[in-house]
Amino acid sequence: MADALVLAMDGALGAFRCALVRGDKTLSEGSAATNRALEDGLGLIARTLAEASICAQDVDRIAAGTGPGSFTGLRIAVSYAKSLALGWKRPLVGVSCFDALEFGIEAVPRLCVISARPGVASVRLLDGDMRHRASGSAAAVADSVRSWLPGGRLACTGAAEDVLSALAERGFAVDILGSSFAPAQAIAMLASRRVPAANAHEVRADYGELPPAKIPKRK
C-alpha cells in the first residue's frame, strides 16, 4: 500500500521517535529523550497524530523498528507498537533498523553499524547477493568484515565512527554515508511497501547479539 497512512516508531537508535507518513510525505513527527521513552512515548504518539489532525481510525498500519539497537528503547517501541496494533485492530509491520539506516543508500559493498550498547557494535554487510552479520567489539566486527572482504573501498552508514579506526587498520578505505531520512520516517516508508505480519505477535525484537548461554534441554 504505497499510499497507506503509516504511524511508525523507533526506540532502538537513540531517542524515541515517531512519524506519521503517507507515501513519501511526512505529515508530522516527534521525538523524546531516551530516558523518557516509557513516560512520554504514548503522549508523543498522541501529539504526533493531533498535529496532523489524524485520529486512530485514520491510520492504515503501524510500524516499528525491530532492532538491533538499544535494549530498553527497542523493547519500549516494539511493545507500544504491538499494543496499538492490537488495540486499534491495525496491521503491524516490523522493519529492521539496518534497513532504516540504509534507506535510500545504494552503494555496495556497504556496512551498516549500530551501537547496541557501550563497547558493542552490531554490523551488517551487503555486497550483491552476499549478506553477513556480526556483533562484538570494534576489533571483533572489523575482523569479521575482513574475513568477508579482502579490503578496499567500503561504504559505511550508521554509527560508522565506532569501527572506523579498526576498519582502517585492516586495509579498508571507508566512505561514510547517511540517509536523508530520520529512522522513524524511513521505517514508515519501508513499512508501506511491505506485507504486514500475520499477527502482532510475529513482530519480534532483534537485539543483535546471541544469548550469552543456552540452557541445555533435559533428556
Q: State the domain count.
A: 2
* SS strand fraction: 25-35%
What is the second-level CATH architecture of the largest domain?
A: 2-Layer Sandwich
Secondary-structure content class: alpha/beta
In which range does the helix fraction lie? 25-40%
Strand order in space, largest sheet: 3-2-1-4-5
Total count of strands = 10
Question: Regions with pLDDT < 50 over 5+ consecutive residues?
Answer: none
Question: What would CATH call the homologous superfamily of the largest domain?
Answer: ATPase, nucleotide binding domain
Number of helices: 6
Distance between the termini: 48 Å
Shape, please?
A: elongated
- Summarize model confidence as the mean pLDDT: 93
Describe the structure.
With 219 residues, this protein is an alpha/beta fold. The protein has helices at residues 37-51, 71-88, 97-102, 138-148, 164-169, 183-191; strands at 5-10, 16-22, 25-32, 61-65, 92-95, 110-117, 120-127, 130-136, 152-158, 172-176. The chain has six helices and ten strands; from the N terminus they run βββαβαβαβββαβαβα. The chain has a five-stranded mixed sheet, with helices on both faces. Strand 9, helix 5 and strand 10 form a beta-alpha-beta unit. The protein is elongated, with a radius of gyration of 18 Å.
